[in-house]
Amino acid sequence: MEEIPEIYFPALKDSLKKEVIEECGKEKIDLVIDKYMPILNIETFTRYLIMNRKKLNAGHTGFTELLLSLDSGFRQVCELIKRFNITEKFIYGIEKSQCDITTQIEHTIVNMLMTTNCLFYIISAAREEVISIKPCRQARYILAIDPIDGLANISSNFPMATTFAIYRPNQVKDNYKDTLHCCGEKSIIVGGYVIYGAATVLVIAFNAIRKVQEYMFDPIMGEFLLVKSGVRIPDKGDICCVDNAKRHLWLVEQLTSFVPQTYANIKHTGSFVTNFHIILKNGGVLVEPPLLNDPQAELQIITKLTPLAFICKIAGGISYGGYTLSENILRIRPKRLHETSPFLMGSPLVMRAWNRLLAGKFDGEQECVEYKVVDPAESEKKRERSCKT
């Protein structure tokens, strides 16, 4: 049978059928369709954007172009990180500083976006000032991005990540400070992140559709393939992602009793986004508490906390921020471009237990069983069995 050019990429079965008939003749159409049907049933991120462009962005073509440019940028960053780890360090002996790596990753993504003609500004966590784009009639959006999270993991081959959010600007388009008033659930159009690890994973949520979708990059096809649509965070879980070594510096006293009473497994990967992904898939809580020497923590509201809190809410979770860990992150209005905040986000039942604790109504022993996957006695038995093995 003759090869059909670009068999992996047709968006519609009808267009494929037409190509096959022209190329091979009517008698072979059934054989070809049966052979390639599994490939055609795979949903890709590119195809999803094209097929749902009207639903996602009310027909604004620049929005689809913007997301496709981001998609291309993330693929390039994936290859760039592999080169940092293998080619440059171990073969050529070149070891770059974290600042140089961050700058190169940022340039890779930004360069893909400069020709989209649909952005007013790009807010990068790696820059003090915004990146101003030449105004044009098509410009409708503001992009906030943290180029790389968990960069310290690069030497140990642990996961790293990129977070991004697309905001709808207000009427004042010539003042970048206007972006400070765009932060929040009403203004965010898209929130997402990409994790670069054993596999490259894209998790994204659209305000228009209110679904969290998970994609995984396939290097053979060169596409992000749909893994799951409508991702939901479990109602409860026994995982707590927190830097437990700094417990003596925590300023919120209730956390000291809440964490050991409610959780059997305490994890910390060195990447905030990777920790969030663990909670999204398995349930539990992610904590970045205010510290005695750093009461505002280190995570920026516009570029990191808002997109992840947006994903958390659409997936069914709850998130809090502020000095007392009691404010809705999506309602916090930053006063500075790179303002930071402590936070607490996770499974809905666990977060309700936190509310009860703040109100002085948390019954530790009884509610541990209700809000956890396993009860404390069972957790201790599991820990003993793992130590023996």
From TrEMBL:
<keyword id="KW-0472">Membrane</keyword>
<dbReference type="GO" id="GO:0006000">
    <property type="term" value="P:fructose metabolic process"/>
</dbReference>
<dbReference type="GO" id="GO:0006094">
    <property type="term" value="P:gluconeogenesis"/>
</dbReference>
<protein>
    <recommendedName>
        <fullName>fructose-bisphosphatase</fullName>
        <ecNumber>3.1.3.11</ecNumber>
    </recommendedName>
</protein>
<dbReference type="GO" id="GO:0042132">
    <property type="term" value="F:fructose 1,6-bisphosphate 1-phosphatase activity"/>
</dbReference>
<dbReference type="InterPro" id="IPR000146">
    <property type="entry name" value="FBPase_class-1"/>
</dbReference>
<dbReference type="GO" id="GO:0005986">
    <property type="term" value="P:sucrose biosynthetic process"/>
</dbReference>
<dbReference type="InterPro" id="IPR033391">
    <property type="entry name" value="FBPase_N"/>
</dbReference>
<keyword id="KW-0119">Carbohydrate metabolism</keyword>
<feature type="domain" description="Fructose-1-6-bisphosphatase class I N-terminal">
    <location>
        <begin position="44"/>
        <end position="228"/>
    </location>
</feature>
<comment type="pathway">
    <text>Carbohydrate biosynthesis.</text>
</comment>
<dbReference type="InterPro" id="IPR028343">
    <property type="entry name" value="FBPtase"/>
</dbReference>
<feature type="transmembrane region" description="Helical">
    <location>
        <begin position="188"/>
        <end position="209"/>
    </location>
</feature>
<dbReference type="GO" id="GO:0006002">
    <property type="term" value="P:fructose 6-phosphate metabolic process"/>
</dbReference>
<keyword id="KW-0812">Transmembrane</keyword>
<dbReference type="InterPro" id="IPR044015">
    <property type="entry name" value="FBPase_C_dom"/>
</dbReference>
<keyword id="KW-0378">Hydrolase</keyword>
<comment type="similarity">
    <text>Belongs to the FBPase class 1 family.</text>
</comment>
<dbReference type="GO" id="GO:0030388">
    <property type="term" value="P:fructose 1,6-bisphosphate metabolic process"/>
</dbReference>
<keyword id="KW-1133">Transmembrane helix</keyword>
<dbReference type="GO" id="GO:0005737">
    <property type="term" value="C:cytoplasm"/>
</dbReference>
<dbReference type="Pfam" id="PF18913">
    <property type="entry name" value="FBPase_C"/>
</dbReference>
<keyword id="KW-0963">Cytoplasm</keyword>
<feature type="domain" description="Fructose-1-6-bisphosphatase class 1 C-terminal">
    <location>
        <begin position="233"/>
        <end position="352"/>
    </location>
</feature>
<dbReference type="Pfam" id="PF00316">
    <property type="entry name" value="FBPase"/>
</dbReference>
